[in-house]
Structure formats: C-alpha cells, structure tokens
Structures
1.
Amino acid sequence: MAWVTAGVVRQALSIERHEAIAVSSPMSVRRRFTPGIRAKVLLASSALLLIPWIGYAFVVQMEGFLYDGQVRMLADNARAVATLVQERAKRVSEKREIHEIAPELTRPIELDGLVEDWIAQGADVRGYGGDRIAELHGPWTADSLSFSHAVGRYGDYIYAFFDVTDDRVVYCAPESATVCDHVRISVKRMGGELERLILTARGPGAVAVAPVSGRTTGSISRSIEGAWRERSRGYTVELRLPAAGLEQLAFAVADVDEPAATTVNTVIVTEERGIQTGTTLEVTDDISTVLDAMARANLRIWLVDRDGVVVRRAGTIQPAATSGGMTKAVKLAVEPLESLLGSWRPQKFLDPLAQASRLETAEVAAALAGTPASRTYERTSGVTRINAASHPISIGGEIAGAVLVEQSTQSITRLREIALERLLLATLAAFVCGALILIFYVSRVSNRLRELRDEAEQAIDSVGRVRGLVTGSNAADEIGDLSRSYSAMLQRLAQYTDYLENLARRLNHELRTPIAVVRSSLDNLRSETLPQGTSVYLDRAETGLNRLSAILSRMSEAARLEEMMRRSDRETFDLNAVVSGCVEGYRVAYAPLALSYSGPGRPVHLTGVPDLIAQMLDKLVENAAEYAAAHTTVEVILEEHNVDVILRVRNQGQPLPDAMKSGLFDSMVSMRPTGSGIPHLGLGLYIVKLIAGFHQGAASAANCENPSGVEITVRLARYVSDPA
C-alpha cells in the first residue's frame, strides 16, 4: 500500500513539475516566434523587388532596339541624300589649287627634336587646336591635344616640326603599331596615288613609318626619317622626306588617352599644301534647300568631296538648352539599378566633329571607297552617343564624294528617362499599396497570436495549476483552430489535475483509518500470549506501519503547504527575528550538532508568510544537518540588500556530485541511499523551491571549498504585491 501511494504522489508531482517547466517557456517561445512570422513575410515580399529589375531590364532592351532603328533610319536618309545629289549635282573636272608646299630654309635641319634650328631660321610656326579637329571620340581640352607646326625645304628634302602638347603620352606596344599617339602624313607624288602614312614610336628616339590599313605605300615611305623627343607635357617630332616630284602634302596628329584603347580620342589636321587636283562637288541651290529641309534637331548632314573635304553641312546635333532629364529623386532611385546592371546613362553631350573642315572617320573612308557604312561612336563614360551612317556619291561611274548623316541619341535618352520615371512611380505605388496590405495583414495575425499567447500564459499559474481556459475563437482559419485546440487541451488538463489532487487527498484520508486499525491490532497482539518467535514478525509489521505513517505525514505536509500558499495572505514581518528564533530552536533539536547564525543585527522587513519561511528553513537545516560531518557546524547566514534578501545555509561534508546540481530542487529527487530505513519522497528541497517561488525568489546549490561542503542559497524579494 505504501509504494502504491508513493507512486501516485510521484506521478502527480512529476506532472506538476513538467507543467511548471511548460509555464516558464512561453516567453522564450514568443521571442522566437513572433519576429519569425514578420521576417518570413518580409522575405517572401522581397520577391516583389524583381518587378522594378525586370522593368528596368525591359527599358534598357527597348533602348537598344531604338538605337538599332535609328541607325537604319540614318542609313536610309544617307542613301536618299546621295541619290538626290547624284541626280542634281554638277561635276567640276580637275580642280587645281596651287599652294606652296614649304618655304625655303637657309640650312638643313638636324633631326634632334629641338626647336632651336627652326627659330634661328625664322620659320613660320603655326598653332593648331580645337578649330582643326577632324575626329573626336571623347572629351577634349587644349592640354589633352594641341600642337605647333612648321615646315620648310632645303635642297632635295622637306623638313617638318611638331611641338605637341599632350597630358599623357602613349607609345606603341610591340604588338600594336597604330593604337597609340602618332603623326599622320598624306602625300602624293606626280602621277602617283595619294599615300597615307602613320609615324609612331615605341619610345624617345627614331620614328617608325607604317601604312594606313588597307592601302599600299610607295617608295617614299622608305625615305622618311624622323626623331621623337619627349618633354614635360608632351613630345616633339622632327621629320625629313624627299621633295622630288612632291605634289600634295598634309599632316595630322592623333591622340590616344589609354594604352589599351581601340580607337583614337582626338585627331587635329593641318591645311593641305601643294597642287591639289581632283573631282569636287558643286552644290546647287535646290540641293541646299532640300538638305536644310531634311536636317532637323539632333540630325546633321554632311557632303564631302573625294578627298574628304567638307562641301556642305546642314543641321546640328547639339541638344537644346531646355532638354530636361529625370528628376533628382528618380535619379537617386535609378542610379543604383544602373550600377548593378552595368548600364550606361549619359551625363553630358560632346560633339566630336563640331569644327571639322575635313572628315577622315572610318565610315566616311568606307563610303569614299564605294561601300555604305554606319557606326555608333564609342560609349565614352558619361557622354551622349552619336549614331552615323554614310553613303557614296557616284557621278559618271566615279566616286565623287560621300554623304554622312549623324544624329545624337538625346531623344532616345529622354524617352528612356520618361519610361524609367513612370516605371519607378508605378512600382512605388504598387509597393506602397502592397506594403500597407502586408502590414495590415501581418499586424492582424500578430495581434491574434499575441492575444492567444497572453491567454495561454495566464491560464496556468506559477506552480503549474490551470486557473483559466483559453477562449476558443470562432474564426475559421488556422489561428482559430489553434485557439480551440488550446482551450480543449487546457480543459482536459484541468480535469486531470483536479482528479490527481483529489486522489492524493482521498488516499491520505482513507488510509488513516486502516493504519489505525492495524496499529490497534498489533497492540492487542502484543498483549496476548503468542508462540515463541512471532515477536519478530510483529516488529517488522510495526516498522512497516511506521514507514507508511511517515509517508502519509509527508504527503499531508505537501498538501498543507499547497493549501497554505493558495489561502495565505502576505504580511510584512521581521525576517531576522524569524530566522534567529528558528535557529535557537534547532540548537536544542539537533544537539549535539552545532549551529551558528549570522545576521544584519537589525530588523529585516520582508513581505510574505512567516510560517512558510519557517517551514522552508526547517527543510534547509534538516537537509544540512543530515549531510553534515561529525563535530562540524551548520551555518545560517542572512544578508540584506536593496531589493532582496539572501538566506544561506552551509554545512561541512561531502560535496554535491556534478550530476545533482541541476536537478537537486526537483520533486522526487533524493541523495539518500536506498534502504536507509527512513522514508523519503525527495520533497524537502522541492518544497524550498516552491516557497522561494511564492516569495518571487529562487533557490540554488553550490559546493564549498576550504573546508569542503555544500551551500544552499535562497534569494527572496523584499516586497511582493501580487496575489498568492
């Protein structure tokens, strides 16, 4: 019967212990759970960021289609203008203009790259800059490229000098002979073809002569000598070439800003010298009228003769001063996308042929060779693109010139900015609406979950008893199902807990009568004359009966404690007086064991139940006295702090095993060896834990050193105002 009763109590208190653990966990669950829903919703909503990315990629792709369409349109315009000119233009045969190729020098020039020989002979040194630009594919300043030039003749040779201002000199690499800083020469001898040569250098010293790609060179290329000399802000070049039979001569200087560049940045040309012959175009008034009518904003038409000299120019590609752009707010939103996608967006406009009197671009050269061509100027960072298309003009079966049509991409850029601005506004509106809907939905779900959490926390008290039920929601969603499940679970748990509590009380009450009957029967048997040897069995029966009575007493003690904690009213009392009085009584009860008390020496006010404190101290001293070594002292120490008090009970003896430190205050836990003869349910320190929790405190145990022993510490709140 005793082990049955102990098993029931063990089950009841074990359930109570697990319930108390479950009560302490909702706070940590709440901290993990509530932000988790919001984080997941935000993570799912981040997929909406694909909308502006896809829209931006679509706008960029459409921009590319518009660029291609513009190039095709320019090619059609160039072909139409060429057809018009071919029908109406007049051909002037063998135009001849005689210019002096070079003035005479008094003595030969030493090819050392120095200007002193030229100054000493009073040479005509001319400056060339922005007004003679033939090609421009990036920003230009006078410091980036400009030069002074002089030419002269002595005997059978013509000498030329160039003093070039260049902020960065780029020499030719061994594998490249043209994509570097260089000097161009256009030369024609009597009865020969026009030769185009390039003079380069791999460093200061002698120059190298190379033909222009696609053209053959005559013997003059092998007769040219020169010297390249570097100076602080540029370089100088001196040349010498044979003058015999020379008919035409012109020079140009090309600048490259980066060693890895694929094209030149700027080309500045000099005037042509000598006898110039060839076929030219005479533009009639009706052609000029048509060209002026076709040219419009951002569209420019060029007519050049067979040598690339500009005959007529109509229109402009310079954007209007009032051309707008994206607003500042839109730019701040779009620029990160452009940086992420590596997209190009112009910041300023640069006209590469604004002052050109001669066109030597690749598409013009192709048209003069009889092949229509088109080209998009390189995407220089932050510079507006310019698309161009050329078409040859053929008169009488001979190429007489070419048409070049150019147009900037300002209009496409503006359409792109408008599309991006509208996309951004539409996306922003969609995001705002979506965010408001998500915030409303998540807030509603979070509030419902928070209400359910609060009800679940309040449904179970600090000792694990069900004191209320969760209100089952009528909502037909998952949260409603969860609340109804909580309500049903708590209801069943309350019924089962009530059954276990009443069962322990009933067993305690019902077992008292059989125990009394057995005890009286044993007493009557002892008064009778019994056979020899039966007294041993009577002693065993009486010992078992005493053990059963002790178990029932401890069960009654636990039940009374729980009842007391439910019904007791807290009061303010002097804890120092209670503890000191109890210790005086323990000295008599536990003699000859020595006890000592150390307190503050003044009243220590505490809000609580004095009887519970005394009962807690009984368990602490009983536990310490039982495990104390012989001839040692059990110390009771009371410490006073601002918001709490600390009660310590310390003994000397065997320390606690590491495995027992964490579960020492749980129910049904005891370190006493089995068969010690004293019934223990392992409730002593568990009662200490319950009383400490009732006073909003906590209990802990630790081993001591020097001397070895165990110290149990109980921390109690000084002022407690919540109901018991």
Note: The longest strand covers residues 398-408.
2.
Amino acid sequence: MKQPISMSKYIIFVTLIDMILYHYPLYSFVFANLNISSLSGILTFSSVLVGLFVVTAFILYLFAIISSRFVKFFIPFIMVGNSIALYFIISYQVILDKTMMGIVFNTNSTEAISYYNPKMFLYLFILGILPAYIISKIHIEKTKRLHLFFYATGILVSGVLIMYLNAGTWLWIDKYAKRLGGLALPWSYTINAIRYEAEELKHSKEQILLPNAKFLDDKKMIVVLVIGESARANNFSLYGYERDTNPLLKTLNVTTLKNAFSSSTYTTASVNSILSYEGGTSDNYEPLPNYLQRLGADVIWRTKNWGEPSLKIQTYERDDKLTPHCDGEGCQYDEVLLTELTKCIEASKKKKIFIILHTSGSHGPTYYTKYPKRFEVFKPVCKTVDLKECSNQELINAYDNTILYTDYFLSKVIEVLKQSSNTPSLMLYVSDHGESLGEYGLYLHGTPYSIAPDVQKKIPFIIWESESFLAMKNLSKTYTKPMDSYGQNNIFHTIIGAFGVNSPVYNKKLDILQRE
C-alpha cells in the first residue's frame, strides 16, 4: 500500500483484522453458551466484541505513544504468534492462561516436536506470515503523540460507557472470564507469559530452609517416590476401569487410594506440591529432596521429564546420562530410570535412601511413542498429533497402552526393592495430574483448575510396602488413614513419617500411613 495512512487508522485496521482472523474459537464459545437469538444474547455478544476491540486498540495506542516503530514491529510479530496459538487452541482445545504458558515454558524440545503437524505450517503461512507481510507493507505517516493520546482516551471512554450501558451482561462475562481471557489473542499468551515469568522470578529467590531435624533411628530404609505423568485414575483397572490395564500390580499386594486429586493440572505446579511441606503449588521453602539430603539421607533423582524445583542434591541423573549404561528396548522409555538401580542402592553408604523417579508416563499427544511395541495391546491406536483426526477409541487405545506400560514399570520398581528384602522399603506412586481424552471437547491437560474436568484432576495414588517395612511397624498388612480425599499434600509428611524424621514441620494428620 503506497498511500500512507495515519497511525490511528492503522491501529483501528489491525485491531479489526485481529478480531476477524484469530477469534473463531472465542466466538464459537460465546455462541455455544449464549442464546444468541435473544436480546440478552445479542447484547452480551456485543459486550464481548466491544471489550475485545477496546482492549486491543487501547494497548496498541499506548505502544504507539511510546514508539511508533515498536508498533510496526509488534503487529507482524503477534500475527505470527496468533497463527501458532490459534492452531493449538483449535487442535487441542487449550486455553492460553497463565497455567498453559507455564506448560509452554516447561516443555522440552523433544516434547515440543511431538506437537507439530503439517497443518500447523498452513496456519503459520496463511494466518501468520502472509498477513504479517501484507501489513508490513503499509506506509504509516507520522502522527503526533497528543493525537494518539486523545484517540486512546476516546476509545477507552466510549468502551467503558458502552459496557456500563450493558451492565446486565457483566455476570455472564464474569462467569466465563478465564475462558474468554484465554481465547483473546494476542493478550492471552503475551500477558499470561509475563504473569508466569514474574511469578517464577519471585519463586527463584533463595529457598527458605525448613527447621533442623533428625532421624529417630539409624536403621536402613529405602523409599521410592515415582511421579507419574498425565495418568488419570479412570483408566486404571485398579480403580474399576473395565479394561485390564493393571495385570501385574493387582498381583503385588498394592494399596490403591481412592478419591485422590492433584493440586494442579500442569506438571511444574503439581511437582512443587508433591515435594512441598505445605502442599502448595508454588512456594519458596526447600523441597523434600533438599531437606532429606541436608538431614543426611542419600537422595537420588532420576528423570525422563521436566518441571522439578531447584534441587540441591548429590545425585541428579537425566535419562540421557543413564542410556549409555542401559541395555534393551526399554532404554528408550521409562525403564531407563531403573538402569543399575539395584547396584546404586547397594553402593549407598547411607542408612536412609530416598529415590525419586520422574517418568514420562502418559504424556500426550503422541501416546503411541511412550511404550515399547509389545505393550501395544489395545488396537488400533492413534498415531498423529492432530487428535481430532483419530477416532475416540483409537485415542483411548493408545492412552491405555501407556497405562499398561506404567503397570509394568511399577512392577519392575517393586522387583528392585524386593531384591533388598531385609531392608524396609516403601514405594509411593502418584501422578502429577490427569488427562482429557476428548471429553467436553478437551484434550491433554492444563485447563485452569477451577474449570478443569475431573479427569484432569483425579489421579492414581498407589502404595507398596515390603514385608520388612510392615514388620518394622508391627503390622500384618498395609494401614492407610481413612480420609474423604487424598492429595499430593500427603506425600511430604508420609515420606518423612516413614523415614522417622523428628521435625517441627511434620504433620501427623497428613501422614496417610500413620495411625492417629
């Protein structure tokens, strides 16, 4: 476009383009939850449109007042960003709130690649690169900052006035504010990315040490905490699922805790909760591994995942470090975490050994890549990242195979502990969160906790105790404290209770293995 236009007209133009090209999911949600043929529905929809227009135009005007050059750079950039965001919103029904941005920032390159599909490049080119190129060719004439200020003020005042006149629509908008905000592009991912990073910066400060404590005895003991990934209780036969996804665990005298729920729907916050004495999803207190290491335990963290807090322990091993010493087809999968684990336990000179195995588990969308071929029992399986291209049964088949493999993996962990039969040992398995497999049109996880379906929050919580552990407690079988519900906040206190740590932060009420 050779004829230059004013910055104010440019901003109005790109705001309308943004509303037309990138908000189909938002409009679809509004139409699905409103009677759009009624006067009330029409007024509510108009309020959503006005709100979206005012927010976008007003922010762009503020940017232009600061720097017109920045706006010229920012607009094409967000068009590319919007096209990628739109692909994920439509393909996986995600909401780009602070939680989801946390998932984005904590996704490693291997996981990120698993999300890509050729269709994404169509979104990128048609809705990103092409309009960004066209917009970049527009010539903008210099506009006085004072004029831009008056335009920004006028739009803000007009928008507030219209919203005030439509005050009857506020309750509906407030009810769905999180979902609407998570679908408004580009502010959903830009503002929530800033919010997430600001919170991370706050929590990156020096950890507050927990009070000094000591072990009540010097008897040798092993505790293994297995942190699962995206495993939902609904698909475990131990929890009543009709398919036999736990053929091995059901023969191993494990205890299954019903009504167990995660603290969050994404890994980082859930792992923080599992390891925190307060059970919070993000606090500055030293996590359980650091605490036990400082008290004199031998702490070993092995992982095929991400999202752990800042660890200050002697042994931290990623899967790539273990792979050279591993043998067999399982080395590409979670079994790599068991590489020479028995030898590692036998070599430890400490009396208290705490092992954390952070698995890749059932992380989607490429469920079919999470288990060896021989565990592909339920067929046919979904083998594309575009989950909508698969039938629901194909998706469930692939997911159930990951649970079948998890069953095998946990049986192997128990097998390792049985080799130290004279040493009291305990295994706790808990998933970080659940997973959606198309219910309510949702896939994967990361939906804001307040509106997330139960399948993203209800998790498996499984316990195994060795005979010597039970004998030490003078029990003939496992005792678990009856509770209305169990959660990740039980883990910290149950583990330090099992180790016999005399600590001021120990809460006996949250120790599920301790009688009142």
Note: Residues 39-66 form the longest helix (28 residues).
3.
Amino acid sequence: MPGRILLALSLFFGSAYAQLSLTPPPPAPLAQSTRVTPPAGPLVGSLDHGLAVWEGIPYAKPPTGALRWHSPQPLPAWTAQRPALQPGMACPQVLSAPGQTKPIVRGAEDCLSLNVYAPAGATNLPVMVWIHGGSYSSGAGSDYNPRTLAREQHVVVVTVNYRLGALGFLALPALAEGDSVGNYGLLDQQLALKWVRNNISAFGGDAANVTAFGESAGGMSLCQHLLMPGSRGLFDKAIIQSGPCTDPQLTAGRDATVNTSSSAARSMGCDPADVACLRALPLEKVLAAKPGGLPSTVTFPPVYGVPTLPVSPAAVLLHPSSQEAVAAVPLLIGSNSDEGSIFASFISKPGQDMTFVEYLGISYAFGGLSGTWKTLIHYLPWHYPTRALALAASSTDGTFACPTSDFARNRAAQVPVYSYEFRDRNVPYSSYLKPGVAVPEFGAYHSAEVASIMGASAALGDYSRFSPAQLELARSMRTYWANFARTGNPNGAGLVTWPRLDTAGLNVLAFSPEATHVVDDFRKLHRCGTVW
C-alpha cells in the first residue's frame, strides 16, 4: 500500500509526466528569428506562425554550489546576443509511472529559466505568467504549450521553472538567511515575477498589467504569494485553478518543517548542521531524500512563520479580521467536479477495488484524522459502486471544492472574485490514465481543464481528441481567462455572463460542453458547510 499511496501523492496537484521528453526539443531554425533587447540583455528567438517565441531565458544565477539552498540571485545583464531557441532544463525531479521498474531522473540544477510567447509585433498586451503544478516536486514550464492562448487571445504568456522537492523546500537553520529558511521554490517564482515586471515590455507585454495563473501546486503557490510581503505589487490579478489555499497540510510551520527537513538531511547522509556536506551531495542523493513521518499530500511543503511567508494561509485566508495581510488583487478561482478520481485510481491495484485499509490510509494522508472521520461517516463505501469512488468523492469535496469555495466567499467581500466549476465529465484523457474496476470513469478529474486553457500540452487531457463542442468550450474558457487578464473582468461579447461571486458563494459558473451557465448548487453538491 505505501508505494501506491506515494505514487498517487507524487501526482497530487500536478499533471502526468510519462509523456515528457527528458531532453529539450531541438532549437528552431535561425531563418525564422526575432530579436529583442530587454534590460536583461539581447535575445534571439523564433517565429512560429505569427507568434514570437523565446525559450530558455535564464532569470537567475544557477542555484548550484554555494547557491544550492540559497535564495535565488539575480543574473547580471549580458551584452552578447543570447539564443533563446529551446526550453531550458527542467528542475531536478524523479518521474514515477505505473509499471516503471526504477526511478527516472529528469532535469539539472541549472534550471531557473522562463519562456515567453507573444503575438508577432505585440505592443502593450496583457501578460499572463503560468506557474506549473506537480506537488512542488515535479513539472516544468515547458511541459505546457500556451501558443494557442497567446495567438488566439492576443496576450503575452510566460511559463516558469522553479526549484522542486528538497532542492526547493528543504528548511534547515544551518542554511538560514537571517531568520528565513526554506521556500526557495517560492522565491524563484517571486524573482521570475520581478523579471517579468522589469523586462516584459521589450517582448510586447504591458508590465503594468500582469496576471499570475497556475493549476494545482501552481495555484497553491499563488495562495502563498497573496501573503508573501516580497510578492506585493508583482502581479495585478490571480487565477487559481484547483489550488486549495486553506488546506492546513499544504504548508507547514517552521518547527515542524525543520524537524522533517532534519530527517531528510540525515537520510541523505549529512548532519543537518553540516552545510558543506549538504552542498556537496550528489544530485541523486538529494532526489532520494526522505523527510520521514507518514505520507502527506506534499512531501516538502512551503514553510510559514518565516519572513518570506510570515503567516499560515490556513489560519489567515478564512478570517475577515486578517484580510489586510492578503494582497488585494481580483481573483478568478475554481475547481473540477471530480478532482479525486485519478488519485483513487492510482492507489488501487489493477483489476480490483482498493482495500478498506488503503481507503483509510489515503483518507488520512489527504485529510488527517479529522478528514478520515468525515470520510468514514459521510462517504460510506457501501453507498458508492466502489471504495475508490467513495474516497474520490471525499477528496473532491474536502480537499478541493469546499476549501476553494470558502476562500472565494471570504475574498468576495474584499475584491472582485469570479468562481467556476469545470464539469465536463467526458474530457478525453491520455493513455497514462487507465480506467478499471476501482474507477471505471474519471469524470472531470484533477487537471482536466488544463488542456482547454493551455492547448496541446503534457496535461492529462488529450486535446487532440476533443469533440467540436469541447473545442468550443475550450475557446470560450481561454476567452474568459484572457478577458480577466486584460481588465479584471472575464466577461465579453458572445459569452455567457459570469457574475461576480456573492458572499454566499452561490453564483458559480459551471463549464461543460452541453451548457455554460450560472449554478447555485455547488456548495450543496459538495456538502460544504455541512460536512466540510
């Protein structure tokens, strides 16, 4: 059971990675090139059917040697023309997949780069900065292909790499900078947002109109940035897709994080106080670090109670008295109607339902003791076709739907909020997902909406098999997203009117190929306020 639980948790808040190439694609031909000279230094990119593309742009010094487990350092401006013709390396991670005999290591430590996609000849266009998901342990900006979004919606899109796993979130006093420990991955994202503010005008973007958006751990990262003092003023709007802000397991206090990080250091063969040993470790040992304790939804979570993130999102984001701590930016936020299905599927053995012990174990991993009791009482396995589907319903409601709704309702009293639920239960999925006895169909699974926004990508959804109705839904969703980035209001000509969320959280826009319409049953369907 532990192996399958860890496999499912490695996919938590992310996409599938079995489809990914471990090396960047070949560079575009120089014959179709475009040149810019931002303050960072001159760059040559490529042209792709009316779209200008610059990939693999470094935004920080390589976080290697003495800069391993150090806040990211700005890269000095360069003077020679730098090619930006292929994505940079992903940040180091271990890929896991069903049937895989041994782990596959992907990426390199010199990984802090970003990619820019802009309509050719762009001037002063809205900017959308994508933070990828992957449980803070996997993924890369180049796993997503925002060309359709940028070209069709006339926006500038930036995708970002940031440090992951132990390299991004180990928190040890010996590595402290002042009173701060950990959160290197969040600080990478923060520096990338600063880079965008300072440089994006040269690419045709409006540096005064930046929307940060992300899914899963990318969305959760934005929850942190709403509270991080150093992130204030770096983005003007935020789009949070399936990134629950208030789950207490998704960040950890300083003392608890130091304890688990100390265990991880010892698992790597170093005393937690021996900085020289830690920074000399081979990458493979770092990637094998084990923090100890029971499996959790995030192995190396962000840490609060430090200057970079002073307060706990779970403690602050639901309390009106604490709203001055939250960045006052408009929000577009939502989740999918069957978020939990893929996690339940990965935990289950092929050809059979999960056992009752597995049902309890993963309930605890997702929701702690309280979540386990709620699952046992309110999601009785014999009321569902399988135990896996009971678990899927519980995790959908308790981990995603209700925390998202509660946070959205709270912020609706302070700033414009637009809330959605993605309800297309027939999104074509990649070969990585395999229905079976435990989960015979996935419905609107976690990350099912990503392909609609980002087009053909490494997401679990197979955009190439979308029906005409699904393609039209995808186009309308991209339009809503881009309108929101443009003005802070997703509405526009030809679209179903999307009202601002009321403080009761009842007027949610439901997306499906059959009908996009406002619903008032979201909280009732997901048992918000009664169970969760």
Note: Residues 109 and 138 are 13 Å apart (CA to CA).
4.
Amino acid sequence: MKSKRKKVAGYIMALILLVNVAMSIPIVAANTSNVQLINRHNVVIVLDASYSMNYSDKLELRYEAINQFVNLLTEKGNYLGGIVFSNHIMDKEDLKKIQSQGDKDQVVELLKSKKSTKVDSNQGYTNIGEALLEATNMLVNAENKDLSSEIVFLSDGETDLPKDTPEELEKSLENKADAIQVARDKNIKIYSICLNSNGKANLKEMEQISKATNGTFKEVSKPDDLKEVFSLFYNVIYDTTTCGRGLSIPQSGQAQLEFEIPGIGVEEVNILIDGNIKTVSLVKPNGKEAKTQSVNGSSRDFNFIKVTDLMAGKWKLVVTGDPGIKAEVNLVFNTDLGIDIQTNNTTITTDEALDVTAKLFDGEIPEISDSSQLNGYETELQVMDVSGNLVDTIPMNLDNNQFKASYQPSEGTYFIKAHTIYDLKQLDMDEKNNLEKESEVLGPINVTKAEEPKKPVNTAPVAVEDLVEKTVYIWPFKENEISFDLSSLFTDAENDSLTYAVDSSFMEDTDYIVENNIVTLKHFSLTKGDFNVKATDTGGLSSNVKVKIVTHNVGVMACIGLGIIAIIVLIVLGIITWKRAIAPFRVDESGIKVQTYKNGIYSGTPHKPMRGTCKLARFRIDNIGIDNRKSYFQATGKNYVILKTNIPVFCNGKASKKLQIKSGIKYTIKVKENDINLMTIEYKSLMDKVMKRKRPKPVKKPKAPKKR
C-alpha cells in the first residue's frame, strides 16, 4: 500500500507540475476589471486509454493522480474539460466552469469511465492527433477567452494505429500537426506527461508536442517522491507555493506544525498528509479552530484538506495518531497575487532618476488600503539589458501602500521588472519557503548622456511580410530540404545590427539547424508547422514574423503516377512494336531494288520482304558509309515504306535519318552531299491499284443550254 501511495504521489506531482507551468505567466498591470482572472485557467485533460496503458500503469494509479490534481484546483472559477481516447475519441466532457466539487468529480468520473480492454481495428491503439485537435478546438471555443488555456496530456508513448489502415495513420499525423499549429497560434500550451513505468515508451513525440507549444514534458518512471515532484511541478504551473516536511507522532500522540499566511496573495491552502493518522485539525491565528473541507479521495492513509476561509497570521496544524507513526505533510498554497509596475518616463538622461512604483494586489483586494496587509513582503527592482541579463537589483521601500524605488542608470537601454517575495516560514523548517511573484517586463528605457542631445527615437525592425509561406514537396529517394535567410525577413530604419530568436514547431538539431542566420530544414517530423522569428535591434525593440511550412509527400503519388506512366508507355510501345511487326510491305513480285555505286562498281540484289522490318544487309550491297546491319526498311501496309539509317543521309538535298520511300519513284541517297558513292532505291507497291480504285471519279459539269 505504501508503494502505491508513493506512485500516486509521483503522478499527482507530475500533473501538478504540468499545470503550474501554465500558470506561471507573468501578471500584467493591475486592472480592477480583471483581478478575478488571476490564477484562473481553461484546462483540458487528455487521457490515453490505449491497451498498452494496462501494462504501463497496472495499478491504475493515473486515476487517483488525476483526482488529486483536479481537487487541487481552486474551489471555483477555473474551467475544466476532459477527453479519453484510443483509436478515436471514446468520450469527452466539454469545457465547463467549475462551481462545485460535483463539477470536478464529473470530469474525473468521465476520465475513469473508459478503458481499452483489447487491441483490434476498433480500439486499443493511440490516436494522439485526433485527441489533441479536439482539445485545442475546445479551448479555442472556450466560454471565457480572457483566461490562458492549457492542455494536460497523459499517455505512455507515441501515435500507434493499425498497420492495415495507413490512411488512418496519415490522418492522425495531419491532425497532430494541425493541433500543434492551432496551439501555437492561440498560445495554448500543451503539458505532456509520459507514464513510463515499464521504461519502454518512446518519448520523442510527446516531448516535441510540448516543446513546440512552449509547454513542458515530463517522464515519470519512478513516482516515489511526492515532496520533490510537488516542489518541481505545482509551483511552476499553477503559480502556487508548495512546501512540505516529514513528521513523527511523539509519545503524547499529538504533533503540531506552524505555518504562516500573509495578508494578501493566498486564496486557498491545500493540506495533504500521507500517513496512517487519526485526526487533523487547524487552529487560526485568533486561537479558534478553523472549518476544514475533507476532499474526495481522502482516506485513513491519505488526507486531503482544503481551507478557503483564511486569516492572515500564524496557523497551527494539529495531527494525532499512534506514537511512532510517520507521515509526510505538504502544504499547497493557491495564490492570487498580482503586481503592477509603473515608471515616470522611458526616455531619460544620465542626470535624471528613474522613479518606479510597484503595487501588489490579489483577486479580492484590487487596491490595498492598509499597509499592514503587505507586512512580510519584500520587493526589489530588477534592471536588465536588451539581452535579458540582470544588470542591477535595487530594494523597493513600502510607502503609502505601494513599493517605490529611485534609480539612476548609466547610458544604455534597459528593461525593468518588480520582484516580490514573502518568506512563509512554513512547517518549522530551516530552509526558506517563499511566495514569489514578478511583474510584467517594462521597457525599453533609453538613457542618454546628459550633455548630449537626446537621440532620435528608435524604431523597431519591420517585417517585410507578416506571414511567409513555403511549400515543400517530399520526394522519395531524394534529400528534401528548404532554407531561408532570417536577415531577409526584416528591415530596420536605423540600419541596426539585428539579433534573431527562432521558435519552431519543428525540432531544432533534429529537423532544422540555424547557422549564420540561415535556417535549413532537412527533416520533417510534422506534415506542417511554422517558425516564429523575432528580430531585436540594438535599442531593444523587436518585431515578429511567421514562416509557415507546408509539406506535400509526393512519394506515394509519384510512385503510383510513375507506375501508371510506365504501364502506358509499355502499352504504347507494345502496340507500336506489334503494328510494326505485323505491318505488310505489299511490294510486287520484283521486290525492293537496292543498289550501291562505289568505286565505279554497282552491287545489290533485289529482295521481297513480307512484313515488319528488313535490314539493308539483306540486299548484299557495298558499304558507302552506312551501317547496313543497323539500317533497315520498316513496312507500313501502305504504298510507301520507311528507311531508317544509323546516320543522317542526303536525299533530294536534305539530310535525315528517316526517309519515306514511295512506290514508283527512284531515290538516290548519299552519305555526303557531293560524294560520288551512292545508293539507289525503288520498288512497286501492290497498293497502287487499290489507291486508284478509291480515287473519286471526276464530276462532269452539266452543259450549258444552247442559246436560241
């Protein structure tokens, strides 16, 4: 049982990590109409129900992990949906607003309800593309489009469909490419977790899906450390703070741990206790016992408590159990802290000060009226150069319910942000457990020398085109590649030297490389994709352009087309050869008369061929420069034959390798126009009489009447 709990914990933490990355998006400047959107998201859980999952996760720990993950969400306000798939989508729960524990349970029950029990043409395989495309469509059509959107995707491997349906595999890969493109266009992050407990999963496909959408990929092979995975994942994705420690019940049968809640910034506290304990209670800072909500999934060995009625100050967690019992306690703080940064000017000289203010707020308190609510928060101003490197850090002082700092930078271009931190001092631990938040980045801030006139206002690079489209035809047995020059995509009014950043749905080093600002795409792991190219000038201003790549795999079409063409050519050649072979010469009894005149001597013997072809060598003539074995007459069945020679010959002043020899006419042929050596050809065709009979009789004109 203990091993099972540890695996559940591992899966829970991996799931939490995935969503926390999504939630780590910087909060923008305070806006009272949007404060309730802090730490609220549209999330679709996509679960693989292929047959192989029965071996990757024999104990079905994924369902307990999903249940735990969903319960960690805030009590109200998030939007949640679910998809279960194998060959095709088996069932789905459309994205809905979470308003109760029942709403959460409904999604979990859907994900648990469908399982593949066999592998056949109808179920048991893995159609990743179809499931992800449906999930992205759900999020594109979300009710609240102001929220950021994420997909949490759980599987144990790669796209796998029946080998006897290649068109189904092709469609799945096409859907996957479409899903990735939609996710990139709509800023939907896909967080993939591979349940690889058997160590046999192929990780590359899931890793690419997450990397292409700026999500995170995580392989879970040894899910036995709840604390580490919680700390690594949940704090990153859901913008929460997590801390934990082990405890041992003393002889008194009761253990106490203290933790602290700040005046603003924490919306809920989730308490997870892994261990065989008897009771759990909470004492508020005012000494009264707090009401706690035991969440679905709690048991004797695993307690999950959600606390929503919070009070600033020190709290006590009281745990009772048999002496010597050990347990692991984790606190997960769902935060709703925001920070707004403002400055007096973005263009100053070196003798002027840069004044910066930072205001903290949360979902319930858009404006702080009592500075005591900010007790414990320490805020600093971080100054960065155009490359994002930290240049300076300046403490900010609390003044009139907001943090302020004055900074006098040297000449240059800078960006600034505010960073606030609260030491939670949780669980009597020595190490720090901090609640942290960063503002949006503000800039560029241009600083010039005081004695110099202010420089002209810098302008950002301009994209030559907003969208560049390129098509690649993938041919078999051929290296297929495409390249483009990043410097050709932008212009800059100040002729600044630009630096480029490339983000692509294709995989760097595997699919493409960037050398000397040239992007070369040599491998195509997706049927379609794009490159988001960002150009930044020396003043820190930037612009973007998208290069869209569409591939057409002409391998199969080409092979089929070439095969059809080859068959047609063979048929045509066969017909021609057959016709030539059966066509009669139709010469009279005297045959074809061929004679050569060489060195004053005539030679040659008439020959009467029947059908097909007849080589000149059959006429026993001298060699006047023509290869008599390679030159021949071709029958036509008409009143002429064709002479084909291996080299051009002259006849009637024209040179040709193909001559039409008509019946009743004597032809003189020379290799050179002025040569004294020559060859003569003549014959009579039996078709002459037939042609005469077919000639229409002339119509006699009626005689004009005589004049009287």
Note: The mean pLDDT is 84.
